[in-house]
Amino acid sequence: MDSKRLARRGSQRIEALAQHFRSSSPSSTSGINSTQYKIKPTKRAAVLVCLFEGDDGKLRVILTKRASSLSTHSGEVALPGGKREEGDASYVETALREAKEEIGLDPSLVNVITTLEPFVTKYGVMVIPVIGRLSDKKAFTPILNAAEVEAIFYAPLEMFLKDENRRAEEREWMGQKYLFHFFDYEVENKKYVIWALTAGILIKVASVFYQQPPAFPEQRPKFWTAHPADNDSTPS
């Protein structure tokens, strides 16, 4: 199958994903009942899960490696994103603003599909994943903010459903055991480890997109328990 046909299939899959989220996600909600969470959220953040079709027709996601000089999560693989600021009108705006600041991604190149239900970390940070499609990969020339980002790379989304190059650690929180997943990925002779919250979000996105569960037990931590969030930014 030639690259153009593969790309069309990739586009059709993204549209199928968009339709799924539009039909299964609430069009608008406001407020959050913090008692629904195992941990009360005290901070708000958003990350951008930006997808595009590679030359091989496979769907890929943009990932970064955080700068080693950062005070928190230094050197870790992450999705572009960060803390919601007072001037941000929505979580979508937060995710797009952070992506532009971190990797120079022009918001006009991103077609936002929807937001996912939130993930709440055990440190009380509520993270909203914003799903978007990169409309023109050739038009995107990464400009890394050296103070925040050390590298950028693209990983195949389907990888997060496979048991290959995956390992896990069993951990415990408030008497309940859960798994932390680690995905090893190598590209251009550079090795990356995608784990923790970033891995959890990508497992979720891949599961919905490919309409199948991962080929391994997920066993998510209870503090990630998803409930309707204040998705005041869900696109119409």
TrEMBL record:
Q: Which InterPro entries does this chain map to? A: CoAse, NUDIX_hydrolase-like_dom_sf, NUDIX_hydrolase_dom
Q: Which GO terms describe its molecular function?
A: coenzyme A diphosphatase activity; guanosine-3',5'-bis(diphosphate) 3'-diphosphatase activity; metal ion binding
Cofactor field: Mn(2+); Mg(2+)
Record-annotated Nudix hydrolase domain positions: 42-198
Keywords on record: Hydrolase, Magnesium, Manganese, Metal-binding
Identify one Gene Ontology CC term for this UniProt entry. Answer: cytoplasm
Organism field: Quillaja saponaria (Soap bark tree)
Hydrolase as a keyword of this entry, yes or no, is yes
Record's Pfam families?
NUDIX (PF00293)
GO biological process, any = coenzyme A biosynthetic process
Q: What is this protein called?
A: Nudix hydrolase 15, mitochondrial-like
